[in-house]
Amino acid sequence: MNRTGAQIVWECLQREGVEIVFGYPGGANLPIYDAMLDYPVRHVLGRHEQSLVHMADGYARASGKVGVAMATSGPGATNLVTGIANAHMDSVPLVCITGQVPSRLIGYDAFQESDVTGITLPITKHNYLVTHASEIMPAIREAFYIARSGRPGPVLVDIAKDAQQASITDWKYDASPIRLPGYRPDLRPAPETVRNAAEMINSARRPLILAGHGILISGAMAEVRRLVETARVPVAMTLLGFGAVPATHPLNLGMMGMHGEAWVNTAIQEADLLLACGIRFDDRITGQLNSYAVHARKIHIDIDPSEINKNVKVDAGLVGDLKDILRQILPLIRPVDRAEWLARIQSVRANSAARDIQNHPENGRLHAAHVIHDLWRLTRGGATIVTDVGQHQMWAAQYCRIDTPHTWISSGGLGTMGFGLPAAIGAKLANPDREVWVIAGDGGFQMTQAELATAVQEGVKINVAIINNGYLGMVRQWQQFFYQGRYAATPLRNPDFVKIAEAHDLSGLRVTCRSEIEGAVRRAESIPHTVVIDFRVEPEDTVYPMVPAGADLHAMIRRPDPAGEPVTEA
Amino acid sequence: MQHTLVVLVEDKPGVLNRVASLFRRRAFNIESLTVGHTESEGISRMTIVVDGDQVSVERLTSYLYKLVNVIQVDDLTGKPMVSRDLAMIKVSTNAENRAEIIQMADVFRARVVDVTASSLVIEVTGDEHKIDGLVEVLKPLGIIEMVRTGAVAMSRGCEALMNGRTYAPATAGECCLENYHTSYAAEMQGNG
């Protein structure tokens, strides 16, 4: 059969099982869009290309499939950049397909030409510039293979317009195995390294598992849980690891790091063994490296060899698929009594509970932490939570107890404000029957609020909780702590978010005191279209505890207890 | 200290950019980088001299492997190896000093490859230090232009990088090329 390059794009996407594409048409990808009409694929038209990538990102994280975003050349392509960088940092499998000016014009500063393969070189796992129709199929096949295998990531395929228009006679899909001589996603650790790691776990007295996103990517949830329960090892979570071990599991301590629980950071600093599973020792979780877990021997399991010994020097680095490696380790693990260690952690925990704002007496004010905690309770933990970036994200991390894999979606490595709303649209499209809540700040929400229109046009029902404190709250908090409270450019004069919702033919609700939270959440759940709730929270509230950037992990600024002053623990 | 890396890459457009961009992105300084074809079609070979300690060069190696087009990386530093630079040096001359310059070139086993009434082009091959030495003695005589390739390097002995894999005879003197080719063909059936 004869196929144009544009048709080949869709033929390939069909073979990859793509059912939904997030895109935006333009001059240089018109042939692809014209061909689309003849293929059974759902196209979601966003309002900005950055959001399209976040949608594909949310879709990928919620479904475990590869997300697909499309844009035209020039500004369409450059607008993808933030979304791609976000997916790259968080190891999310995406294929982005951009139109490029006709090949004879490449390099001549043509209208809407941008060197998108050059621009995205450091933020993609790999990318392709395709100038002939015959190269489209291999490029797209390799793109999907690279995006989803090994450590997942975004791959961009830039296709010149003339390659989309050209025809290939007697085109056939090539289903043979992909040959990439330099690409080895299937590394395995040597058996003696595995035995050595198991022995380190068996002989540890104060071991701790650091559970990250890699567990979810590898699908190693059951293996990690068996290890936790067999060896009686407590678990600390990274922000992106939520769901890998149920938050309500008695051995799950909660989140580590800059805004992690005090007892978790203390446990890390007191542990004699850290077993890092699919994490990358980001500076937000280690604090000062010189004083990080100095008493602990360290085992690091990751599929990306370049992560081993990158930030933290480890005693055993095991490169490979986490699930496979844990299956090799598990039979070698002996049950050990760790009651003393667990009791020690519990004792630190009690101190933190006294400081928890949930245990403070009601003062009539609406605290963001109350909103988020109530929201989690009211949704019975049964909703997918998608956050934006900032204070609300950290409160959500502290007060939403995530039990189910792939139901917590947040921008981790890049910290991209504006991620929440579009990512939630993608997550909802991946699981249409699941309740989806966006928790966003007033600042981040406004970065991509145009996507409310996408939700309307696509008939996507999500609930948006704006934690509206009238500030860029996280920046304000840093100004409060480290810049003598000089609030440079952090106060926000916001639009009326209820009216914004109404302007989109959506419902807007406003909540100003704690007693209104339940009613608003229930109403939002009962309304069949997207609902925006404007939670007017305490303007100058602070996320505690906090490890200042670059400080020792145990040097946390703690929430004042009801009577006292903030305490910095030595 | 200086490390000499040999990097085998797929011979595709943009690969040099990917490698160079990686050094910039990860804040490594390239002392020199050379690239050319190998005996295998479709595979190019880079010799990269980079300044850094052992730990950072190991990090760099693992980043290089993250590039899909990079097939193999070998750090030759500290191993028996041959490393060569080529330079062409244009020297301003006159009737009086021409003979002296040519003599000097001879001492360095350099060759004169172009002569005019007022200039000479000298071609010299050798390790970095040898070329530096020649440059030093020619400087007072008037170097007017100079070009250097940067190092190309290869390990000594029968071990080799072929098709992106290490070829090593099982015992000295035994040729296992045939076995190598058979297993290579089997491996290249695909990894998808």
Describe the structure.
The complex is a heterodimer of chains A (about 575) and B (about 190). By secondary structure, chain A is α/β, with parallel strands linked by helices. Chain A has three domains: about 5-170, Rossmann fold (3-Layer(aba) Sandwich), CATH 3.40.50; about 190-350, TPP-binding domain (Rossmann fold, 3-Layer(aba) Sandwich), CATH 3.40.50; about 360-535, Rossmann fold. Chain A is built from 23 helices and 20 strands. In chain A, the strands form four sheets. In chain A, strands 3-2-4-5-7-6 form a six-stranded parallel sheet, sandwiched between helices. In chain A, strands 11-10-9-12-13-14 form a six-stranded parallel sheet, sandwiched between helices. In chain A, helix 17 links the parallel strand 15 and strand 16 (about 410). The relative contact order of chain A is 0.11. The mean pLDDT of chain A is about 95. Chain B has two domains: about 1-80, ACT domain (Alpha-Beta Plaits, 2-Layer Sandwich); about 80-150, Alpha-Beta Plaits (2-Layer Sandwich), CATH 3.30.70.1150. Chain B has helices at about 15-25, 55-65, 100-105, 130-140, 175-185, and strands at about 1-10, 30-35, 45-50, 70-75, 80-90, 110-115, 120-125, 145-150, 150-155, 160, 165. In chain B, a hairpin with a 3-residue loop joins strand 6 and strand 7 (about 120-125). The chains are: A alpha/beta (about 575), B alpha+beta (about 190).
